[in-house]
Design brief:
By secondary structure, the protein is an alpha/beta fold. Among the domains are: about 210 residues, FAD/NAD(P)-binding domain (3-Layer(bba) Sandwich); about 90 residues, no CATH class. It has 21 helices and 18 strands. The strands form 4 sheets. Strands 1, 2, 9, 10, 11, 12 and 18 form a 7-stranded mixed sheet that branches. Strands 7-6-14-15-16-13-17 form a 7-stranded mixed sheet, with helices on both faces. A hairpin with a 2-residue loop joins strand 11 and strand 12. Helix 1 packs parallel to helix 10, helix 1 packs parallel to helix 21 and helix 8 packs across helix 15. The chain is globular. The structure holds flavin-adenine dinucleotide (FAD).
């Protein structure tokens, strides 16, 4: 028998976080092997030519960047350009779509006038501004901690309190976010605030488990300000840069390499073109979701060490445990995804029913459709009862307005634009293998109906067609996303998000515990979205896993 090749670290999964970890560990002189199941790295942070024969490179899944720290960009020497958008959001009034709220970051007077136009009370604009000012008292303090060992809850609270944010801590961390959003008067404005708490999270504003607060915090904490920027060249450009940094640092990146089993003693089994291969390492970094890791470890443990041997206590207990740790340790890791994603390519931007706002301004930020607080709540209950919400709450982004480089010059000159839609409150329990095709087309119809309710023309009329004459639209259910990039239940964060601090009584004895990447297996750490603080396109999961490994030596 030949000895399997050995490494300092094997990274299971080549999403952007795996690439960040590979780059940091490679730079530190470690021998690193990264294994990616697909034929390209990047995971859900990729660009794709989604429509046959049409040269438009869409950010297929994730599209905006807020949480990627400048520290990671600098440490790894990444050439990434992020564009700040002038408009924060546009929200047509569902009761009268000929008017809507346009939040213009560069023109407070115009924004205030827009609040008046939708019939908001005189102090609503001020309350809206104050709401975000208050949030910053908390986020500006917590943001720098995201790439440091975790503070405890008490330490984090003290830091925020010392910075004058005691009441903000109470409002955002201790009680349902609905309580503070209710300070605003208008259903529409409340909805604009609430959506940040519900992206990829099937929850309500008043839920006692506060999962919506955690989601809200992650949407506001990036850079301390919560700005969401457009990556020039699309998400693929971000992952390409990370792959370049990882390769330059000496990491070996293998694609078409699917890991089937992880033995917690340090062996990884994977297959390349149907051939089984083994490699071993001091450290295993899991860029896959925690629940996927649980299955891979169960497979690895069963293969290597039969139940009898485990029962007999061989080898030493604690190292070769066979328990499915993810679910048992943290049921939050099993939370389902709750969205539908639709990508479109249009001949031009659609005309709006609201003639007071230009399509360039409306689509220049986040375009909220049917997302008042009441509509979001109704949608939650409809979905919880097994139905597709009607109307379906949606958010829309236009990448090509901020960054036309993703379109071939002839498309740009002809005025073409990409739209990407994120439909909320479609929990994965509504979709399964038997109804996936039917649900995909029903969800696509629901998204188009919701969108058309605020347009002056059906969006179908301005869809481009691909080389085969098919309309340029693609829809991804939670199951499609699970199958494509391996996110269980289509959960865009690999499971429920966690607070960016440890509870006061949580163990902190190992670097992995202090960095929020521990798994219960001493040689395996999480290095993806499922790590504490790892959610979204941030590289933080990869960074923190690499720091834990380096600190352990
Ligand atoms: C529709 C959608 C929209 C989103 N929008 C945004 C957004 O705008 N901004 C944002 O910040 N975040 C967004 N997100 C979330 C963000 O994309 C993810 O949190 C992030 O990409 C996770 O990165 P990761 O590297 O941790 O994992 P992933 O990107 O999930 O990568 C994990 C990798 O592991 C591979 N893998 C799985 N199993 C195996 C195996 N057995 N062997 C080998 N490899 C394996 C997968 O193929 C994948 O490449 C969105 C996600 C989705 C799905």
């Amino acid at each position: 028998m030949t000895t399997p090749p050995s490494y300092d670290a094997i990274i299971v999964g080549g999403g952007h976080n795996g690439l960040v970890a590979a780059a940091y560990l490679g730079k530190a002189g470690k021998k690193v092997l990264l294994l990616e199941r697909l034929d390209a790295v990047g995971g859900a942070a990729v660009s794709a030519q989604a429509f046959e024969g049409v040269e438009a490179w869409l950010s297929r899944y994730s599209y905006l960047v807020s949480l990627l720290p400048a520290r990671i960009i600098e440490d790894l020497g990444l050439d990434i350009t992020l564009v700040r958008r002038r408009y924060s959001s546009y929200t047509p009034d569902p009761a009268d779509p000929t008017r809507g709220l346009l939040v213009d970051n560069e023109d407070p007077a115009a924004t205030e006038a827009s609040f008046t136009r939708i019939g908001a009370p005189a102090d609503e604009f001020q309350l809206f501004e104050q709401f975000y000012e208050h949030c910053r008292r908390l986020t500006e303090v917590l943001w720098p901690t995201m790439t440091e060992p975790l503070p405890t809850r008490s330490e984090a609270k003290r830091m925020v309190t010392d910075a004058g944010g005691a009441s903000e801590w109470e409002a955002m961390i201790e009680s349902p976010i609905g309580d503070v959003i209710r300070h605003l008067h208008t259903d529409l404005v409340r909805g604009v605030l609430l959506t940040d708490a519900l992206i990829g999270t099937f929850a309500r504003a008043d839920d006692e488990d506060l999962q919506q607060n955690i989601c809200f915090l992650y949407h506001l904490v990036g850079g301390g300000t919560g700005d969401w920027d457009v990556p020039v060249g699309g998400m693929g450009a971000v992952s390409s840069e990370l792959a370049r940094a990882a390769r330059n640092a000496g990491a070996e990146l293998k694609t078409n390499a699917e890991v089937g089993a992880i033995d917690p003693a340090g062996t990884v089994r994977y297959s390349v073109d149907g051939i089984d291969v083994e490699a071993s390492a001091t450290w295993i970094l899991a860029n896959v979701a925690p629940s996927t890791l649980g299955k891979l470890v169960a497979a690895g443990t069963t293969v290597s060490y039969g139940r009898e041997q485990l029962a007999a206590g061989e080898p030493s207990a604690g190292v070769f445990e066979a328990r499915p740790f993810a679910a048992e340790q943290n049921p939050n890791h099993l939370r389902e995804g709750a969205q539908v994603k639709v990508n479109l390519l249009l001949k031009r931007l659609p005309r709006l029913r609201d003639e007071t706002v230009s399509p360039e301004a409306a689509f220049g930020g986040t375009f909220h459709i049917n997302e008042t607080w009441t509509q979001l709540d109704d949608a939650y209950f409809a979905a919880a009862g097994g139905d597709i919400p009607h109307p379906l709450p949606c958010e829309i982004y236009c990448h090509s307005l901020a960054d036309p480089t993703i379109l071939a010059p002839e498309l740009r000159e002809a005025g073409a634009h990409t739209l990407t839609v994120f439909g909320l409150h479609v929990p994965s329990r509504l979709v399964d293998a038997s109804n996936n095709d039917e649900m995909r087309s029903r969800l696509q119809a629901a998204v188009l109906e919701s969108l058309n309710s605020v347009l002056a023309e059906p969006v179908e009329d301005i869809l481009m067609t691909d080389a085969a004459g098919q309309p340029c639209i693609e829809t991804k259910t939670t199951l499609d996303i699970e199958r494509a990039v391996g996110m269980p239940g289509g959960n865009i964060f690999h499971g429920g998000l966690d607070w960016p601090f440890l509870e006061d009584d949580a163990p902190t004895g190992t670097p992995a515990e202090r960095w929020g990447v521990a798994t219960g297996h001493p040689r395996i750490v999480l290095c993806g979205s499922g790590a504490r603080r790892g959610g979204a396109v941030s590289g933080i999961g990869g960074h923190n896993a690499a720091m834990a490994v380096l600190e352990s030596e």
